[in-house]
Design goal:
Blueprint (H helix, E strand, L loop, with lengths): L1 E7 L7 H6 L1 E5 L1 H4 L3 E5 L5 E5 L11 E4 L4 E6 L1 E8 L7 H13 L5 E2 L4 E4 L2 H9 L3 E8 L10 H9 L17
Parallel strand pairs: 1-4, 2-6
Antiparallel strand pairs: 1-5, 3-4, 5-6, 7-9, 7-10, 8-9
Length: about 180
């Protein structure tokens, strides 16, 4: 089994020629949320994913195996729901409120100009229908941004600046950003 223990977010630092040579590992979103897993590369090779706890893989990330080989992560096609406002009287503001509520419920969401995309979960679909939203099942890559609760460095950064009210940030302010 080939062990993968290094992640290069979005292939940071790799030359384009190396990215082109990298193998592809297509995974559904649920599998990309596991930092430790035994996987198959689709060509019969067994892979042992051993990344730091809390790691979520994103499309475009590059994994480095212990032998130096590279695998580019892709979001696999999977069932999703396209959520739109109610057909009669629904408004885009309803989607904004829904996106906020789903985020509080720790449901991953991808926001588009005229709809939301959420996991194709049957219970979630029933709940959304009861709320009056129009649903369209689809099959597409699902690669949502991280929830704010998964970004401790962003939250910590926001809190650390609360004490700097009135402080202007710019060249020469003498602290890291």
């Amino acid at each position: 089994m080939l062990i993968i223990n290094k992640l290069l977010p979005q292939g940071a630092g790799l030359a384009a020629v190396l990215l082109k040579r990298a193998g592809v590992l297509a995974l559904p979103f649920a599998a990309r949320q596991h930092h430790e897993a035994n996987l198959s590369d689709g060509e019969g090779s067994e892979l042992g994913l051993r990344l730091p706890a809390g790691t979520t893989l994103r499309g475009g990330d590059v994994l480095v195996a212990e032998d130096g080989s590279l695998l580019r992560v892709e979001a696999e096609q999977e069932p999703v729901l396209l959520v739109r406002p109610a057909p009669h009287g629904g408004q885009m503001a309803d989607l904004l409120r829904l996106a906020h509520q789903l985020g509080e419920m720790h449901v991953h969401v991808v926001a588009h100009d005229d709809h939301l995309c959420v996991p194709g979960d049957g219970e979630l679909a029933q709940w959304l229908e009861r709320q009056g939203f129009a649903l369209t099942p689809d099959v597409a890559p699902f690669d949502p941004p991280a929830l704010l609760s998964q970004l401790p460095e962003v939250v910590a950064h926001q809190h650390s600046h609360a004490a700097h009210a009135g402080h202007v940030h710019g060249p020469g302010c003498n602290h890291d950003h």
